[in-house]
Amino acid sequence: MRTCLAFLENLRPRQWTKNLILFAGVIFSQTVGDHEALLRALAGCLIFCLASGAIYVLNDLADAALDRQHPYKKNRPIPSGRLPAAAAGRLALALIAACLGAACLLGPTFALATGAFFLLNILYTHLLKKVAILDVTGIAFSFVIRAVASVEVLRPLSPGIQLSNWLLLCTFFLSLFLGFAKRRSELMKVRPATGNTRPVLADYTETLLNTLIGITFTLTLMAYSLYTVWPGTVAHFGTSRLVFTLPFVFCGMGRYLFLVYRGGRGGRPHEILLNDPSIQIAVLGWVAVVFLLIDLRR
């Protein structure tokens, strides 16, 4: 029982908010009112929650020795010894097989996206996270795969559904922004020379990360702004008023920057989403305005 509880803890349920992007497909295809589409999106989100949990376990197995030197990572189930490495590996592989099997039931293209998610993250664990810039790029592509999966999970219901390039661009740039901000927060809190953090941080500098954060902040806002007024978007939703959602995006991202630069936070974006009222208001405001402006049930 203790092993099972430790394994569940290692799946990091608090980070599952990252997989809410699996609902992007039903929102932007305006099928929220379709119960079957909503259930498929929910099933897809659950599969990716478990899939990301399995990846966390594999990542912790690879980093166990380093994590034992970290101020808070040393308390995780695997480095602390509460979850035996052999049991963790077997349970993670079983969970991966279960996720792939369940993904196949939701459609072949969704299963391919799920498989790509696993392959990319295994590559990240063993290679990408050790190389500056590629580490954050790998994380960003994992979110792009989630965005693709949010559409592909609906394809059996709507074969003609289109995968928006704007959705992919906004997802990619926003993920880069959050990733580089997280690296800056980590860099400011610990010194790479101590060996108590990510070795890749030794290849980053504050100036470099400040530049990358500024670039990706601008690209994210620009991509989302163009998306809201693009002729194809206006024709699809039947309104040009999606531009009124832009202030919520700006305020949410601006608040996150404030927390990174002035609040000393940013190392755990998922925790900020769960705990910061200002960002929660920005997210809920964006959702509310989207519901008011477009007919999601059409």
How helical, in percent, are the residues?
55-70%
Unreliable spans:
none
Main beta-sheet annotation:
none
* CATH architecture designation of the largest domain: Orthogonal Bundle
Gyration radius from CA atoms, angstroms: 20 Å
Number of strands: 0
Oligomer: single chain
Q: Could you spell the SSE succession in H and E letters?
A: HHHHHHHHHHHHH
Name the average pLDDT.
89
Shape: globular
Structural class: mainly alpha
CATH superfamily of the largest domain: UbiA prenyltransferase
CATH fold call of the largest domain: Tetracycline Repressor, domain 2
Description:
The mean pLDDT is 89. The protein is globular, with a radius of gyration of 20 Å. α9 (206-229) packs antiparallel against α11 (246-261). It has helices spanning 2-10, 24-28, 35-67, 77-80, 85-105, 108-126, 134-152, 165-189, 206-229, 231-237, 246-261, 269-275, 277-293. It has two domains: 1-163, Tetracycline Repressor, domain 2, CATH 1.10.357.140; 164-298. The relative contact order is 0.11. It is mainly α. The N and C termini lie far apart (47 Å). 69% of the residues lie in helices and 0% in strands. The chain contains 13 helices and no strands.
Briefly characterize the structure.
With 298 residues, this protein is mainly alpha-helical. It has 2 domains: 1-163, UbiA prenyltransferase (Tetracycline Repressor, domain 2); 164-298. The protein has helices at 2-10, 24-28, 35-67, 77-80, 85-105, 108-126, 134-152, 165-189, 206-229, 231-237, 246-261, 269-275, 277-293.
